[in-house]
Write a structure and sequence with these properties.
CATH topology of the largest domain: Pseudouridine synthase
Radius of gyration: 21 Å
Order of helices and strands: EHHEEEEHEHEEEEEEHHEEHE
Strand content: 25-35%
Helix content: 10-25%
CATH architecture of the largest domain: 2-Layer Sandwich
Mean pLDDT: 90
CATH superfamily of the largest domain: Pseudouridine synthase
Structural class: alpha+beta
Low-confidence stretches: none
Oligomer: single chain
Number of domains: 3
Shape: globular
CATH class of the largest domain: Alpha Beta
Length: 318
């Protein structure tokens, strides 16, 4: 079974939607007919039990999907420039630009990293999600691992599940962050705004480790290590403690905090990103089984923001 890949994820109840529709929205690279065939062939289980394409989901449920090589994939390949920092027979490391969606989803069938990967590496059509084993938010830049084979995909995704991949981010937060070394707050879907996540008692365990690198007047430069990897985790956690990521309007950033910094305000008027960069990864290489480390510098926009903050404020490394 080593040439078989397994998806496992939770889904929330969706009013008036059938099971095949819900799964299709989560895995848009596969056709609806393919998903129906999987269900009928008992390759999809809901809470460990077989199911029907017409089933409705009444409670939060765990979905398990068995994916074999050469399954039908319905994503177009597109000639989009990629910044490849590492490439070998087993994996690729991409430095994703802010503004690029990681993989296709409802409303984003084109212009994604997944579309670009399938053009440059056509063989990735035989690997789930074109080899993408984790994701970054659209406006977050930085490093992503791409598995080039099912064997590598299985090995790397197992490391993610076992929390053996070290992922560190660099961010600039609003306000002067106090000595917070760790944020351990559960995260789940926001009760009202379904596009947002929130700290909630009923959410999933979510742990972020913080290291304050520099404090400025009304901002902080912070290194964040993800222990868990929940959707929007860093953004939610930093917003929860009152220091949203600079540029992240969804989670409470307000440029008015820098009202005395006219150059920065002018820059932020045109800035459509988040000052959040996935700067380093460390994991065991699927072929050598040795530690593999890679890092990247933040993009020019991030550095520009940092320089404008530095220009008009004091700095404190304590």
């Amino acid at each position: 079974m080593k040439n078989v890949t397994f998806y496992k994820f939770d889904i929330e109840p969706e009013k008036n939607l059938r099971l095949d529709q819900i799964i299709s929205s989560r895995l848009p690279e596969y056709s609806r007919s393919t998903i129906k065939n999987w269900i009928n062939a008992e390759k999809i289980l809901v809470n460990g039990k077989t199911c029907s394409p017409k089933d409705k989901i009444a409670i939060k449920s765990e979905i398990e999907i068995e994916v074999h090589p050469n399954e039908e994939i319905d994503i177009i390949s597109e000639d989009i420039a990629l910044n490849i920092l590492h490439e070998d027979d087993n994996l690729i490391v991409v430095n994703k630009n802010s503004g690029m969606v990681t993989h296709t989803a409802v409303g984003n069938y084109s212009g994604t990293l997944q579309n670009a990967l399938l053009f440059r590496y056509p063989e990735l059509k035989n690997v789930p999600r074109a080899g993408i084993i984790h994701r970054l938010d659209k406006q977050t830049s930085g490093l992503l691992i791409i598995a080039r084979s099912l064997q590598s995909h299985n090995y790397l995704t197992q490391q993610i599940q076992d929390r053996l991949i070290t992922k560190k981010y660099l961010t600039i937060t609003s306000g002067i962050l106090k000595n917070i070394g760790i944020i351990d707050e559960k995260i789940g879907r926001h009760k009202i705004n379904r596009k947002k996540m929130a700290v909630t008692f009923s959410g999933k365990e979510s742990i972020s480790k913080l290291k304050i690198l520099r404090r400025f007047d009304k901002a902080s430069l912070v290194e964040v290590e993800l222990v868990t990897g929940r959707t929007h985790q860093i953004r939610v956690h930093l917003s929860f403690v009152g220091h949203p990521v600079l540029g992240d309007r969804l989670y409470g950033f307000r440029k008015s905090i820098f009202s005395k910094n006219s150059e920065l305000i002018k820059f932020l008027d045109l800035y459509n990103g988040h000052a959040l960069h996935a700067m380093s990864l460390e994991f065991k290489h699927p072929a050598t089984k040795e530690k593999f480390f890679i890092e990247s510098s933040p993009p020019d926009e991030f550095l520009k923001i940092q320089s404008l903050i530095e220009k008009y404020s004091y700095a404190d490394t304590n």
